[in-house]
């Protein structure tokens, strides 16, 4: 009798269709640490907004400077938001960047977005530095990445400061029998209060991901890892994914994303 292989379908990432594009405004600005700034945004659309997952991310359409009028692409549910933004005349075109929804208060029609601010090198950093109550920006609904298997008992969450808001949200809104968390930050001043135990990896001047990779390799992880979520600097994420696969974690049990790339302006 011929053998039959039963293929188990990997967890499917949440998807959203008919994403809305709408204007929002800043109502509060708060510094969480030397390099983290939280902006609270309000819009009528946040009242019925339904996040697809704990690491929900949004497209933010950022005016190029505080004097620029906010111009948004047509709100027609177009899937290719990049093309829709590119079609706006250059002198009016906002910058499009992606950020995690850190908190959502539908009854108040508000959300929080945490920005990592480094110098003045990227559109997100520049907007966060100059933002004040009343500043306008656009929001494009997106989706989430977190997609563990139903039988998950053990998980590993790995990232740097760019993924700290997503990891925080995952820890606050989901659970697993055993969770191991590794977050790389520039120094101890960037630590935040998170649920459960976290291995904070201070960069100490080394290239992004170097100490994080060593920390994960040297950790006492469970023999069987049911799910891994790895996001942060692109090359570091690739290296960590390769290590986890070599360690026996199935590729379809690893969610990974390069939030940024060394040598390119962040946000």
UniProtKB/TrEMBL annotation:
GO terms for molecular function: oxidoreductase activity. CDD domains: siderophore_interacting. Pfam families: FAD_binding_9, SIP. Gene3D superfamilies: Nucleotide-binding domain of ferredoxin-NADP reductase (FNR) module, Translation factors. Residues 19-149 form the FAD-binding FR-type domain. This is Siderophore-interacting protein. It comes from Agromyces mediolanus.
